[in-house]
Design a protein that fits this description.
The complex is a heterodimer of chains A (365) and B (636).
Chain A lengths: L11 H22 L7 H21 L2 H6 L1 H18 L1 E3 L2 E8 L2 E4 H18 L8 H19 L4 H18 L3 H20 L5 H11 L9 H14 L10 H4 L11 H33 L4 H25 L17 H19 L5
Chain B lengths: L8 H28 L1 H12 E6 L6 E2 L5 E13 L9 H7 L4 H10 L9 E4 L4 H10 L8 E10 L7 H4 L2 E3 L2 H4 L12 E3 L2 H5 L1 H4 L4 E7 L5 E8 L7 E2 L4 H11 L4 E7 L4 E8 L5 H4 L4 H9 L8 H4 L9 H11 L8 E3 L2 E4 L2 E4 L7 E3 L1 H7 L2 H11 L1 H10 L21 H8 L5 H7 L10 H12 L3 E2 L14 E2 L4 H16 L15 E7 L4 H5 L10 E8 L6 E7 L9 H18 L1 H14 L25 H4 L4
Helix pairs in contact in B: 10-23, 14-16, 14-17, 14-21, 15-21, 16-19
The chains are: A mainly alpha (365), B alpha+beta (636).
């Protein structure tokens, strides 16, 4: 170990914020599940967090440049695993997303592929020779990100697939894109999305979620049910919240999955607007801390890695929290660090490990 | 790799601003829900979890005078619809599944639109087995969350319209009733008495519904009972009706159109009340369909009409005892006054026939009542003048409501000069008095009025208010200013009608001195009748009013048989009812019977033999219902 990599050099504010959010998450998982069949979810979450911290520590020891140099191997491995998931994965709630890892635990491969995508985009962008991307570059990186996206989308898991797009978008913008290209891409999206919707590229349930998002009251007991119940839970929380284990929407299970996708809804009910501002403030500080690490990164690759992590986390927060207040469609992506679930916790800690990794190497040139 | 790390610092700064924007955007969403509109969502959360289930209070039972149950309840399932969870698209399936008319269901929901949505509406009162199966297979938070079963108590009325009009029925309170002071305290959807004693005593029969508040989870599973307000059951109502007498009256009427009223003239207690044709009140208990209702309304026999208190008809010759009393009391005649009847006589230029074409010859008052001689009463009426007749008719309670504890009683009509002036702005013609003398003309009475009027005479001039509930009559009866000797003369005449081969001989009961009077009342003059298509409805009505015993009478019975043609044909109905009353009274306590029998016989006219050493068998022999041949012709 080199002397510049000391324990002291880790991003302690970032880690403290992370663990604060995780603690609130565990508390909320306990509150939402203590009276249900998932009542042991909270200590499982504690174990996952412990595992996450351990992975974070490991990742700081592997120089991210080493990872970047092996990214195409990791990429190939990702594609193979994603294919394996589609063919042999465990089916839960109608989607094949998991591979069992023994002991009753299972991992969601697409969560870990995020890290590969971050590294892939970082490597691709740093290898560019020009100041701006041209068409061949765009097509190349688009295809590289597009293939795993497609594999995740047919699991089906549109939400996670879109997080890859967030990484790509941030990478492309940072690398530099001519306005002309930007206009063309925007136009292409404007034309292809309606056509794609018309051609049923999305599955029925994905379409259903989208249409319900437009008008939840149309189907109050069906697809709109979750959104309506979530808004009721949030609103009933009021300014100060109804107290831990006192939220009726959460406790009586009117809220769907109050410990995973809708954990923030349950949190809002029991902790009110004040609690919401505190937690969103913590997320904001976390992201700002990551951006600060990007700004202090020793090289472009470090910037891309940190901003990729930031893009994914921001996308998750925006879509998940937006869904809770009914401003985003129900896509089923978790709230990082709070939602119960091992894969997301591990993947987020790995990403934060990457950020620390970049930070630890900031004095090298 | 290129390492100019400042290449994107501007873009990262922009990214930070975008992040700030996103967080402000998200927090504004929470501000909107949690601070600005929190109350509405708080209520929604409460409505989510708290379910209010009505607990239906059972109505009080209706009992007869001996405490036997006339109207009972039976437990049923009712279906309520929670409008918070209602999907309009489900209505058709629900309507089909429960055999309800879809349009009526929609209208019903529409009527409740102004009520708060958390108030459930009962959409079907009595679920059948197949309805229950439908509800059980569809009731699920995921499919038909709006359906909810509750237990209730529904009315169980006697079958085949037994005492239907007197009892009445219950139904959902109508919008016009909601405005009435009587129903002001009830809410839409309440089941209230619509007719009969069910309506009159609704307040005491109806209990107070309770409510159970439950905390439920999203599957509708009860987690906790928040509050329980027990229902207060309605009070039982004991009537003065005697089920045995009522049953005999119902049977005696068979399927004739008409009415029977039996009173205890000493107190005004109603012992039996029958109106035929009747309807089945059980059809109303579970909410009557509009088709059934229309059928009842359109029926030419008017089964919904309570003939005992609403049929206003000419009393015919049953009015003659009142005219006789008026004549004796006013001193216009004494009991020896005679009139020669040659089958008719001229009054004011028109010839008036007696019902007995050969003529009764010279008759005095007793004989005139006995044989119902029309010419005699024409003459007496002419002597009296309409206002004297009206005075005594009104004294007997005609022309005004008896005040019986039933809704919608009719008043009847007692014509007088003032009445005609008030109504028609015309002077009374003396010729019109002649018809009134035999209970025709503008005079109309209801059966209960007639029972009360004759009952009052029978008790020596005390007219009690008829009532169905003991506690209802606290006021003393109206004592008329009459000479008891005159009353006895009229009563003796009525005794003769039954027992001295008068027109009502078929009302005879051996061992009991029944008094009575027949009446055959025309609905319109016979000349008019022939030109109408309403043949059967214009046939003469048959009346009989009887009471027994002659002294200290215990029961007075009026029978009306619409289109029964001859008064004496109603007499057996009255006889059966009176006999049933005494059979029962004597049977209930043999000791009492033994003690009463000598006195009973003594109280009779004395024309009977002295009591035998062993009393008559308890079940008395009834004479054949046919009257002697010479009386069949057409007594009035």
């Amino acid at each position: 170990m080199n002397s510049y990599r000391s324990f002291r050099d880790l991003d302690w504010p970032l880690l403290l914020i992370t663990l604060a959010i995780c603690s609130l998450g565990v508390l909320q998982i306990y509150s939402a599940t203590h009276d249900t069949i998932w009542r042991d979810a909270w200590w499982k979450q504690v174990i996952w967090i412990g595992g996450g911290v351990f992975l974070l520590w490991i990742v700081t020891y592997i120089d991210y440049h080493t990872l970047l140099s092996r990214v195409y191997v990791l990429y190939g491995l990702s594609l193979v695993t994603l294919l394996a998931v589609i063919m042999f994965g465990t089916k839960v709630f109608g989607g094949r997303r998991w591979i069992p890892i023994g002991g009753g635990f299972k991992l969601q491969v697409s969560e870990f592929v995020k890290i590969v995508i971050i590294l892939l985009v970082a490597r691709f962008m740093t290898e560019l020779k020009k100041e701006e991307l041209d068409w061949p570059d765009l097509v190349k990186i688009g295809a590289l990100v597009g293939v795993p996206m497609l594999l995740v989308k047919i699991q089906p898991d549109l939400g996670t697939a879109l997080t890859y797009l967030a990484v790509l978008a941030v990478g492309v913008v940072l690398a530099g894109l001519r306005w002309k290209y930007f206009a063309v891409i925007a136009a292409a999206i404007a034309i292809t999305v309606p056509i794609a919707l018309r051609l049923h590229v999305l599955d029925d349930y994905q379409m259903g979620r989208l249409t319900t998002f437009m008008d939840p009251a149309k189907d109050p007991r069906g697809k709109g049910y979750q959104v309506i119940q979530s808004k009721i839970a949030v609103g009933a929380g009021g300014l100060w919240g109804r107290g831990v284990t006192r939220g009726t929407q959460t406790q009586l299970q009117f809220l769907p999955v109050p410990h995973t996708d809708f954990i923030f809804s349950a949190f809002s009910e029991e902790h009110g607007f004040v609690g919401v501002v505190v937690v969103l403030g913590l997320y904001f500080l976390l992201l700002m801390q990551i951006v600060q690490n990007a700004q202090m990164a020793p090289d472009r690759a470090g910037i891309y890695v940190c901003m990729g992590v930031c893009a994914i986390l921001l996308f998750h927060v925006l879509v998940n929290v937006g869904m809770v207040v009914g401003w985003m469609p129900v896509t089923g992506i978790p709230l990082p660090l709070m939602s119960a679930g091992g894969s997301n916790i591990l993947s987020v800690f790995l990403m934060l490990g990457l950020v620390n990794n970049v930070r630890l190497r900031r004095f090298v040139n | 790799m290129r390492d100019d790390t400042k290449f994107a610092s501007g873009k990262i700064a922009i990214f930070q601003y975008i992040m700030v924007g996103i967080f402000v955007f998200l927090i504004s969403g929470f501000w909107n829900l949690q601070v600005q509109n929190s109350e509405g969502y708080m209520e929604a959360a409460e409505r989510n979890r708290i379910k209010s289930i009505p607990i239906i209070a059972p109505r009080g039972k209706i009992l007869d005078r001996d405490g036997r149950v006339i109207v009972d309840n039976h437990s049923t399932f009712k279906l309520i619809l929670s409008r918070e969870n209602l999907k309009p698209a489900h209505l058709r399936t629900i309507a089909d599944g429960l055999n309800l008319n879809y349009d009526e269901l929609v209208q019903r929901l529409h009527r409740f639109r102004s009520r708060p949505a958390y108030e459930p509406i009962i959409i079907k009162e009595e679920l059948t087995q197949s309805d229950l199966a439908f509800v059980e297979s569809h009731r699920d938070p995921e499919t038909f969350p709006e359906m909810e079963l509750i237990r209730g108590q529904n009315r169980l009325y006697p079958r085949e319209g037994f005492a239907a009009h007197m009892i009445g029925y219950v139904g959902e309170i109508s919008e016009s009733e909601l405005d009435m002071p009587q129903f002001i305290k009830y809410e839409p959807g309440s089941l209230v008495g619509k007719q009969g004693v069910e309506r009159e005593y609704n307040d005491s029969l109806m209990g107070v519904d309770g409510q159970r508040q439950e905390i439920v989870d999203n599957r509708g599973k009860i987690r906790q009972i928040l509050g329980l307000k027990e229902a207060i059951p309605g009070k039982n109502l004991q009537l003065t009706i005697d089920l045995d007498v009522q049953a005999v009256a119902e049977l005696a009427m068979e399927n004739r159109r008409g009415a029977v009223v039996a009173l205890d003239p000493r107190s005004g207690e109603v012992l039996a009340m029958v109106s035929h044709p009747a309807y089945d009140p059980n059809r109303f208990a579970g909410g009557i369909s509009s088709a059934n209702w229309k059928e009842l309304l359109d029926n030419p026999d008017k089964p919904l009409l309570d003939r005992t208190i609403q049929a206003q008809l000419a009393p015919g010759s049953t009015f003659k005892p009142i005219v006789a009393l008026a004549a004796l009391e006013s001193g216009k005649i004494d009991e020896n006054f005679t009139v020669h009847c040659s089958g008719g006589a001229s009054f004011y230029g028109s010839y008036r026939k007696c019902w007995w074409k050969p003529g009764h010859g010279t008759v005095n008052l007793h004989q005139a009542i006995l044989h119902s001689c029309d010419v005699y009463f024409y003459t007496v009426a002419d002597k009296l003048g309409i206002d004297t007749i009206a005075k005594y008719a009104q004294m007997a309670g005609l022309g005004e409501k008896t005040g019986i504890d039933l809704p919608h009683e009719a008043e009847g009509t007692v014509p007088s000069t003032a009445w005609k002036m008030r109504l028609f702005r015309q002077k009374w013609f003396a010729g019109e008095t002649i018809s009134v003398g035999i209970g025709q003309g503008a005079l109309t009475v209801t059966p209960v009025q007639l029972a009360r009027a004759i009952g009052g005479i029978a008790t020596g001039g005390v007219w009690q208010r008829p009532h169905l509930v003991k506690e209802a009559n606290l006021e003393a009866g109206k004592r008329g200013d009459v000479n008891l000797e005159n009353v006895m003369r009229v009563i003796n005449g009525m005794y003769g009608v039954v027992n001295e081969w008068g027109t009502g001989a078929s009302a005879q009961i051996p061992g009991l001195d029944v008094c009575g009077k027949t009446g055959t009342a025309q609905l319109a003059s016979n000349a008019v009748l022939k030109n109408t298509a309403l043949g059967h409805t214009m046939t003469d009505n048959s009346w009989f009013v009887g009471f027994a015993p002659r002294q200290n009478p215990e029961i007075v019975v009026v029978a009306l048989w619409e289109a029964g043609e001859h008064g004496n044909l109603s007499a057996p109905i009255v006889r059966d009812v009176i006999k049933a009353y005494f059979d029962k009274r004597l049977r209930t306590s043999p000791q009492e019977m033994l003690a009463q029998l000598p006195q009973f016989v003594f109280a009779s006219t004395g024309m009977r033999a002295a009591p035998k050493a062993t009393p008559e068998p308890v079940v008395l022999q009834i004479p054949v219902s046919k009257p002697p041949a010479d009386q069949v012709e057409s007594p009035q």
